[in-house]
Amino acid sequence: MKRFLVLFALLLLAAPTMAQDFRVDDIRLEGLQRVSASPVFAALPVQVGDVVDRENVRDIIRSLFATGFFSGVQVAREGGVLIVILQERPSIKSIEIEGNKAIKTEQLTEVMDENDLREGEILQHDLLQGITRELERQYVSRARYGASVEATVEDLANNMVAIDIQVDEGKSARIKHLNIVGNSLYSDEELFELFEIKSTEWNSFFTSSDQYAKEKLTGDIETLESFYLDRGYLDFEVLSTQISISPDKTQVFITLNINEGEIYTVKSIDVAGDPIIPESRIRRVVLLREGETFSQQSMTDTSEYVTTMMGNAGYTNATVEGIPTKNQEDHTVDVTFFIDPSSRVYVRRINFRGNTKTSDEVLRREMRQMEGSSASNARIEQSKVRLERLGYFKEVQVETVDVPGTDDLVDVEYTVEEQASGSIQASVGYAQTTGLNLGVTVQQNNWLGTGKQVSFGINKNTYQTLYNYGYSDPYFTPDGVSRGFSAYYRTRDYSKINVSSYSTDAYGIDMNFGYPISEVSRVGFGVGFINQVIHTGSYAPQEIISSPKIRDYTRGSYITQSDWENVSLKYQGSNGIPFENNSFLEFDLDTYAITDDELVPVLPGFIDRYGSQFSSGTLSFNWSRITLNRGILATRGSSQRANFEATIPGSEMEYYKMTYNGQIYFPLSRNFTLRLKTKLGYGDGYNSMDELPFFENYYSGGFGSVRGFERSTLGPRGSNAWEYRTATSSTTGAPLPTGWSDLNRDGNPQAAEITGAMPVHILCEDPTSASALTSGVLASCEPGQLMMYSKDTRRPTSIGGNIITEFSAEILLPIPFLEDTRSMQLVAFADAGNVFSGYCRPDDYSRLNCHEFSPEYLSSSAGLGFTWISGFGPMTFSYSVPLHKNENDRTEAFQFSFGTGF
């Protein structure tokens, strides 16, 4: 009404000025400040040269008001000049929103932006009122029926205004009662399980499932309809939906009235239209069967399968529709799949965008869809997956663009977002078993945009130092044959990680080739050279090097046990001479040369038979098949890897190893996934070497193996290392002299008077009395043989075995209260496994946990594990309890490992 009055007044004012028609020689605009002249001239219904009358003036005023930019419009004439005097509406200087919590300010601002209500725009009061109502509808959609939104406008200087929007969100309405009427085939509980919305329960505070929303209810009704249609109830319908709201608008009562109808079976299945593909092939993917209960889901899935088949055959615009025709009399249904193939589509060109560093050639060689060939949805998508697996890009998107002027040509455009594919990284980590881990690695997976991989690094932890260099070309040939080189030098001290006392120094070089045999499978082989030197520690078990041995620093002679006891039971002075009643005692012990009869019989260890330094050529063959959806923290798919490695016949070592690793994921429900994993391995020597070298043994226990047990502690233990006992002073530990004669009769031992200062061994005579002289050590005394003992009083350490068997079952669990869990994984697990040996020594070596393979010796555990790929690097934790353990297994309930890069 106000606008009409203003318009009427302006027309009256303009009437005298326009009493006569005139030709417009020029148009002048006055009053413009923020609005540019262009939209005004575009809105004017007259131009220079037109003749203007009263009706034209009315049209001018109406048109300019219709733009919404002006609150006042006047039209005047000055000679042949048409003058338009404008008063602009105020512009918005600021918009403030207060009182909102349930809906973020950004979401409310987005609604206003979509309706052109933002800072700097011209204020339109009717638009502002409409937006406040829209904001209220946003709250109603979230079951906040008492919400209100009020907007106030404050005038400012320079024709500006400030808008203040006050929001009263009210309380969220909760579903007090949910009821279904008319169901007899399925119980209320079965149907309510389908619904996203629920009536208020004890856990509703956490799930918010009792908050009413119209969109949720609509979705649940569609789910209910699909439930019945998938079970053949084609007459099912929701007769009415009754929704009641309590007077205080905080409680909602919902009642659904339904009619279940009768069940329908499939009478016939036909294919109509122009299938292009032979009907016999189409019928192979039809999920419905004549005589069986009709299922709408099966019909829809069949349509999708046929559509995919058509798309893979080049008919990417094909449409397939399943049409059910009900027969009310006998409650059967005739299903017809109508196929419209449209025209066959060909790919004119494949384009790449966003690859600023990576060359087109690297991307194009991953393409399975070729230019000039018929378009295939499967090949286009498969090409996208191959680009994603390269690891060079954060994201890969693909779209098909119709070629203008044709209906049978498309261009395929891949848009990629580059990410860093190389790094110069220093790393720090810590693990219970390896301690502090330090490393510097330089790696470039996409060298100069060519797709080649180059890396070298230095890594050091408690037990290992590693220097390595690697180069790999994944497309050594255009067919995808890969070639790589690597060189390394490493030192390892196995005694630091629960393994027997020995260390290795090794250097080597390898060259390998890989061949694709399918989109998900590869085979490869490699050749190499390795030189290894083995160093044994003081406690190296007898399987590695036999013991005891006659040491070079001894005289190769022995005294009898009785002579040693007679001397040792006397208090000895600082020079090892017996001292009693304040005087030294003269003595002379008989010594005897050691012969083979006095030595303890031993079996030769590996080093005794084969030496401690080896140079060998190596061969390897591997096969892999990987369909995992992710390289890290996968949730579906499977992977299998089989590897065979061996030394070349005639090398200083001759052995082989076969190892298999496999895992597979089974979805149990939307939130739970079962993962099964196994590792199997076997190794042995051949030709001149009758066993697998001990430093190539398998080990089990710890992360990536059987959790809940210390790393590498499952399986065979090494036999204790022994030393021959030598006669020593009880006070100084110095070699015990075999005699002293006081030649000058001064009562004090002189160097010239002492005989036998070098160590001498002891021949066992009586095992019962020998124990008193070997307190605190593990000793052995067999009459007629030299006495021996073991300094290592710890539990025997692991030596590994040539057979490994490991199994694991995990259930991937949802992580509560977190929306994005792609970098995290919570699992409940059960592990079982052990290492076995085909070279178990006789019992007299006190060999522990050495068994040939048998399921009864599998150690097992169960627990929870959590992995987080954080900004500080991967972190892994587990807590488990043993279910079955063998004697001498070492358990470890809580285990962790983490690392970081900087």
Which secondary structure elements does this structure contain, and how are they paired or packed?
Elements: H1 2-17, E1 22-23, E2 26-30, H2 37-43, E3 51-52, H3 54-66, E4 70-78, E5 81-88, E6 91-98, H4 105-114, H5 125-140, E7 148-156, E8 160-168, E9 174-181, H6 188-192, H7 204-207, H8 214-229, E10 237-245, E11 251-259, E12 265-273, H9 279-284, H10 296-312, E13 319-327, E14 332-340, E15 346-353, H11 360-364, H12 377-389, E16 393-402, E17 409-418, E18 422-431, E19 435-444, E20 453-460, E21 464-473, E22 482-493, E23 502-516, E24 521-536, E25 557-560, H13 561-568, E26 571-572, E27 578-580, E28 583-584, E29 587-588, E30 592-593, H14 606-610, E31 613-626, E32 638-647, E33 655-667, E34 673-685, E35 723-724, E36 739-740, E37 754-755, E38 761-763, H15 767-770, E39 778-780, E40 788-790, E41 803-813, E42 824-836, E43 859-870, E44 873-884, E45 894-901
Helix pairs in contact: 1-3
